[in-house]
Every structure is written in structure tokens, then in C-alpha cells.
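User: Please fill in residues for this 489-position structure.
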């Protein structure tokens, strides 16, 4: 089969989770063999659903999905499922195959070298013992070990440090097979993709574009401008015909027939007016209120632990954060940033002391501070109650709306949301709980890039103490940082 042959085709595919939650409506597109494409769309539009349809995890309600006979598909998902966290690396990689692989260890070693993950005695280590960045590498390796004809990557840069993103980018540039990737990292996508499949959350259709993300934004902007210009001209012509029709109707006789024809022409022109393509909505500007009646030092750090050459190393520090002071934690994947943040947030860090009565707002990269069995409404209500303020239904729903948590989402269980939507709930919770100390672990993960400047502005303006970990320089550069602690130095 030639490289240019189609490897996947969606033909009139429709899918819905329920009668009230349609995702795809008669979607048609094709992917040629060897293509490297981006799948884009707003948080919750259904991008991961398309991946599940491609792997066979879901079946379409209508239409046909044609995958070339014999072609294999593998997915590197956004996160490792919770139920797999206690597996060893060997067990985790074996679980990617239906049959037992007797030479699994050397195959694991090969793919871990490809993703630049070198860990001593790796086969026996449990998945939960790896950092978020290392787990991101394991996710990619779990797909690569299957040697698929179609590689599906769902937010592969989440949790990766700069070196990890550079390594992944080079790998994908050199990769010879077909790739479809979901990502909100425009610079990463532009480095290797050649086309975009855009899932429109409003029409539930997939639009196909040639070029990288920047080209798509330009194409869509030009299209919207043309549609608006055409509609403006039609509206002007319609109004003119209606005004003339009214004038002729008053004159009576034959003029009434002329007036009737003009109204009919105006109606025909109205049918030519097109629905202008709606842009993805962006969350509204927001403020995270600072806990009232808290003064003086909020947190004091005298020492911390890191992982260096697979060993725990203690380091001294002299950090004191008061109101309106922001600290950035830096360091490569695997050094222990997330572990340190968790121990500080939970009050178990030996060298850290949070002042009495300071309320901690903790944003975890895996959203495990959220109860996945709660509905969104229940989660927001708990957050508001934790602030000590009286329940306020109007404020709760207003904050939810600011984060695009609509009426059809607010009663959904958190475990059923997309990762991006979970991020929106996590930020809404922070607003409602009004913390004195904000601890944020990779808050850009899974978040639509349109929202990031709004989030950065809110964090920069936060008047409490803040500790931030982020591997996204362009995001960090938008935030006021008063102190940097590099764990590797």
C-alpha cells in the first residue's frame, strides 16, 4: 500500500453519550497513511471520544469507521488510570497486549530509551512511584511498545519538562508512521504537524485544514470575516427590499404585486444568510479572593527533600512567604516537585510549617483533590462551605458560569468530565474557597490555550502566598514571581 493511501476514514459518523449529550453529528473525514495531524477543539467537545472510536472502545450510533485491514491503533492517554497505579512497570506494559509477551523486558528497555527514561531496576518499580513527568513518558512508551500503524497521543506534553518536550518533538519529527495528537501546546504542534482536524463543539462536525495551528487560526479568521461581510451586505439588501415593499404596498393596485415579489425576494435572501462559525469561548476574567483576617507569615520552609540519582537528598532553605508573595519551584522531571508540593499542602513536610488557620488551596495535576463521585455542583458547594462563608447559590452558579460550567454540566459527575473540564472545576473551587496559601502543580495541563492568559492574570493578581510549579515558560512569564527555588541547585 502506498504512503498516500487512506488509513482511516469516518463516513457520516454520529455518536452521543445520551439523548441530552450528542458529541458527533454525521462526521466525515479521512487520514492518509504517514500523516501527522492535530485534533483540536474546545474542552469537552469530544476529542478523546474520537480516540475511543478509533480504538474500538466505543461504537458509533450511525455511520461507518473504516480502518485499513490489519492496521493497528494504540493510544498514549492523558493519564494513567488510578486502578493501574499499583502495577509494576512490567505488569503495566504487559497489560497493553492481549497475549503474553515472553520477551517483554528487553522491549520495555528499548521503548524507555526512546522516551528518554532511565531508571534503575525499572521493571519492578510500581507506576505510582514515578513522578508526573516520568508517568507521561511511560504513557508514550506504552503506546510505542505496540508498534502501531496509527499512534494516538492525548496531551503528550503534560508534565514534561523542557528537555522531555524537546526529546518528544524530535522523535515525532523522525517518526515514519501515522500520528494523530491532541494538544493545547501550539509551539509543540507547529514543530511537526501538517494538518488539523477541528471538532466544532457547536455544530459537532469535524473540519479538516491543511497547515499547522497558526495556519488554521488564520484560515478561520478569514472565513469568519468573509461570512460577516456577506451577511452584512445581505442584511442591507434585505432591509432595502422590505422598505420598498412597504412603500409599494401603500400605493395599492399593481404595486401590491410588486411589493409581494419584493417580500418574497427578501425572504430568499434571508435564507442565504449563513451561520457564522462560532469561536471557542474563553473563560471570563476572575479573581481568587484572599482569605480574610490572616496576617504575618503564612508559610516557613527551612528544608526540603529531593530525589538525586535515585536517592533522597535533604536540602536546607530559608523561605518565608507572607501575603502577596509568589514562589516558583523549578527542577527537572523526577526530582520530586509534586511530592514536595503534596507534603507541604497536607502538612507532612518536615521542613515546612504553614501558619495556624491558613486555608490551603491545592491544585493537583491529577485532580485527585476532587471527589470524582461528586457532581460538579456538590464539589463547588463543598468548596464554598470550606471558606466558612454562608452558602450563596447565586455566587456559586455565577462562578461556575465564568468557567464555562453550564447547566448541562453542573449536575454531571466529575469522573465523567474531560480532563480540561476537571481543570475548570478545580479553578472554580479555588475561587469559592478563598485560600490564604495557593499551591499549584502544573495548572496548565489539559487546559485550552485560550484560557491560559486569563488564568495567568488571575494568579499574578492573587494577593495571598503562592507556590507554583509549571514547565511552561510562556505561562510563567505572564505571572508575577517574587522568588525562585531551583531544586536542582
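Assistant: Residues filled in for all 489 positions:
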Amino acid at each position: 500500500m502506498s504512503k498516500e493511501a487512506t488509513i482511516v476514514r469516518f463516513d457520516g459518523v454520529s455518536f452521543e453519550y445520551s439523548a441530552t449529550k450528542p458529541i458527533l453529528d454525521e462526521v466525515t473525514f479521512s487520514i492518509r497513511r504517514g500523516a501527522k495531524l492535530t485534533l483540536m477543539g474546545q474542552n469537552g467537545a469530544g476529542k478523546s471520544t474520537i480516540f475511543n472510536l478509533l480504538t474500538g472502545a466505543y461504537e458509533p450510533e450511525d455511520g461507518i469507521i473504516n480502518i485499513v485491514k490489519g492496521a493497528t491503533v494504540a493510544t498514549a492517554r492523558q493519564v494513567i488510570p488510578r486502578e493501574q497505579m499499583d502495577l509494576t512497570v512490567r505488569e503495566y506494559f504487559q497489560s497493553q497486549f492481549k497475549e503474553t509477551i515472553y520477551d517483554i523486558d528487553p522491549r520495555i528497555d528499548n521503548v524507555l530509551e526512546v522516551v528518554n527514561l532511565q531508571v534503575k531496576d525499572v521493571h519492578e518499580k510500581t507506576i505510582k512511584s514515578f513522578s508526573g513527568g516520568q508517568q507521561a513518558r511511560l504513557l508514550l512508551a506504552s503506546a510505542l511498545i505496540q508498534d502501531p500503524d496509527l499512534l494516538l497521543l492525548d496531551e503528550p506534553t503534560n508534565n514534561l519538562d523542557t528537555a522531555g518536550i524537546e526529546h518528544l518533538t524530535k522523535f515525532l519529527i523522525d517518526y515514519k508512521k501515522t500520528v494523530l495528537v491532541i494538544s493545547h501546546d501550539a509551539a509543540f504542534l507547529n514543530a511537526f504537524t501538517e494538518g488539523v482536524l477541528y471538532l466544532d463543539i457547536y455544530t459537532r462536525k469535524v473540519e479538516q485544514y491543511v497547515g499547522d495551528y497558526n495556519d488554521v487560526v488564520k484560515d478561520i479568521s478569514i472565513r469568519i470575516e468573509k461570512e460577516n461581510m456577506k451577511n452584512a451586505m445581505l442584511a442591507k439588501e434585505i432591509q432595502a427590499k422590505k422598505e420598498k415593499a412597504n412603500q409599494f404596498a401603500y400605493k395599492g393596485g399593481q404595486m401590491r404585486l410588486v411589493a409581494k415579489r419584493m417580500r418574497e425576494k427578501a425572504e430568499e435572501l434571508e435564507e442565504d444568510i449563513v451561520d457564522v462559525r462560532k469561536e471557542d469561548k474563553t473563560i471570563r476574567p476572575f479573581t481568587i479572593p484572599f482569605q480574610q483576617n490572616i496576617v504575618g507569615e503564612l508559610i516557613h520552609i527551612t528544608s526540603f527533600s529531593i530525589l538525586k540519582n535515585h536517592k533522597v537528598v535533604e536540602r536546607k532553605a530559608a523561605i518565608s512567604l507572607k501575603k502577596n508573595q509568589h514562589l516558583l519551584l523549578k527542577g527537572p522531571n523526577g526530582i520530586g516537585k509534586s511530592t514536595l508540593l503534596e507534603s507541604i499542602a497536607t502538612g507532612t513536610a518536615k521542613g515546612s510549617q504553614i501558619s495556624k488557620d491558613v486555608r490551603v488551596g491545592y491544585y493537583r495535576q491529577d485532580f485527585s483533590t476532587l471527589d470524582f463521585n461528586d457532581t460538579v455542583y456538590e464539589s463547588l458547594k463543598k468548596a464554598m462551605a470550606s471558606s466558612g462563608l454562608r452558602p450563596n447559590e447565586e455566587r456559586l452558579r455565577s462562578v461556575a458560569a465564568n468557567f464555562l460550567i453550564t447547566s448541562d454540566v453542573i449536575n454531571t459527575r466529575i469522573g465523567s468530565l474531560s480532563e480540561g473540564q476537571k481543570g475548570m472545576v478545580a479553578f472554580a473551587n479555588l475561587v469559592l474557597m478563598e485560600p490564604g496559601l495557593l499551591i499549584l502543580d502544573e495548572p496548565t495541563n489539559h487546559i485550552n490555550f485560550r484560557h491560559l492568559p486569563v488564568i495567568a492574570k488571575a494568579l499574578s493578581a492573587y494577593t495571598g502566598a503562592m507556590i507554583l510549579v509549571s514547565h511552561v515558560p510562556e505561562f510563567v512569564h505572564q505571572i508575577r514571581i517574587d522568588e525562585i527555588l531551583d531544586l536542582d541547585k
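For context: The chain has a mean pLDDT of 88.
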